Amino acid sequence: MLARRVLGAVDRHGVLDLVAGIPGAHPGALEQVEPVDRDDERVEVLVEFLASHRWRAITLGALCRQLLGVLDAWWLRRRWSEVELGWLGDGDR
Predict the structure, then answer these.
(1) What is the pTM of this model?
(2) 27: which residues sit within 8 A by CB, 6+ positions away?
(3) pLDDT band of 45, cuts 50, 70, 90
(4) In 3-state terms, what secondary structure has residue 53?
(5) Which end of the chain is more exposed for a tag (fewer CB within 10 A), N or C?
(6) Residue 67 CB-density burial (10 A; 0-12 exposed, 13-18 middle, 19+ buried)
(7) Number of H helices, E strands in the chain
C-alpha cells in the first residue's frame, strides 16, 4: 500500500504541475491522495525496493528521496529500452 500511495502522490504532483502551467486554471481543493491501481507497473518496482531495503530505519524524507530515485531510474531504463527497440526495428527496413 505504501508504494501505491507514493505513486498516487507522484501522479497528483504531476497533474498539479500540468494544471499550474495553464493560465487561469486552478486545481481546486486537495483531497486525500488516492493510491494507484495494484496493476500499475510502477508498483512492483517500488515494492521490490522496499522488500530489499531496511526502509523503516531511515527518515521519511530519506525514504521519499530513495523511492523517487528508484522510480526515476526505472523510468530512464524503460525509455532507453524503447529507444533500443526502435533501433532494432529500423534495422528491418
Answers:
(1) 0.79
(2) 15, 16, 19, 20
(3) very high
(4) coil
(5) C
(6) buried
(7) 3, 0
